[in-house]
Amino acid sequence: MTGSMLVSNPSAEIAKHTHLVAKLASGRELRFIDPRMFGRLSVHSAAFDPGGVEPLEVSEENFVKLFRGRKTPIKSALLNQKLVRGVGNIYADESLFRAGIRPRRRASSITRQELARLYHSVREVLREAIALGGSSVSDYVDADGEEGFFQLEHRVYGREGEPCRTCKTAVRRVVLAGRSSHYCPRCQK
Ligand SMILES: [Zn+2]
Predict the structure, then answer these.
(1) Is 70 exceeded by the pLDDT of residue 63?
(2) What pTM did the predictor assign?
(3) Which residues, in sequence order, are CB contacts of 179 under 8 Å at separation 6+?
């Protein structure tokens, strides 16, 4: 290569044979200097893949596969946006309650049948969220994984010590990876 790629301050003089100046997010410039004009430039739109499946689009089979062999608690796996998108702390607790699964259980210990229930409960919770005024699942969770505006009637989330709406047992709270997790010790196994 006879040319060069330089990162420069915008105030720096533009060298002779500079064929490209690209503004970088940092405010600096990427400059391509190519005196012999052997270089080529092509622009591609990169398909940005944030990773993770959309729970409302994924099949039950593929959802179940996500958790196979994972030693992390099921709640942590649900919150992992690289696995599943759009499930924040509240949705995870509410989905696990509806599926009858305790948040601390190892993902790999959860049966196929329980995962099928979880698949349906996650979708149910998200659909309720959408019905309450959202437009897409990804609107619901901010960068910290916290839900914004959606207020469904919580069955367990934020109800520590209050009676479970199904069996009247006091709802418990545990801290998992720094996040509050709420569950009913009777309804969830
Ligand atoms: Zn209960």
Answers:
(1) yes
(2) 0.69
(3) 75, 79, 89
